[in-house]
Write a structure and sequence with these properties.
- The protein has a domain of 29 residues.
- The protein is 69% helix and 0% strand.
- It contains four helices and no strands.
- Helix 2 packs antiparallel against helix 3.
- 1% of the residues are buried.
């Protein structure tokens, strides 16, 4: 009786997935590439290139930190 009130999907059919948004992923991806170009392009040693790679991954953290430092001065 309960199956009649609440029909289920057949076992062979995959559930429908709806993706929304995604614009922030694009912005992060473009920023990631830009940060890598900036940090790795200015590097002169292998150590600086490796550090530039990781800085590129975490560029939003640096951006937010510098923004908070700037806002604290006012």
């Amino acid at each position: 009786m309960a199956t009649e009130l609440f029909p289920t999907q057949p076992e062979h059919q995959a559930p429908k997935v709806i993706h929304q948004g995604g614009a922030s992923d694009t912005v992060y991806g473009i920023g990631l590439i830009g940060a890598w170009v900036y940090y790795i392009g200015r590097a002169t040693t292998t150590r600086e290139r490796v550090l530039g790679f990781f800085k590129g991954l975490f560029w939003p953290a640096f951006l937010v930190y510098q923004l908070l430092v700037f806002l604290e001065k006012e």
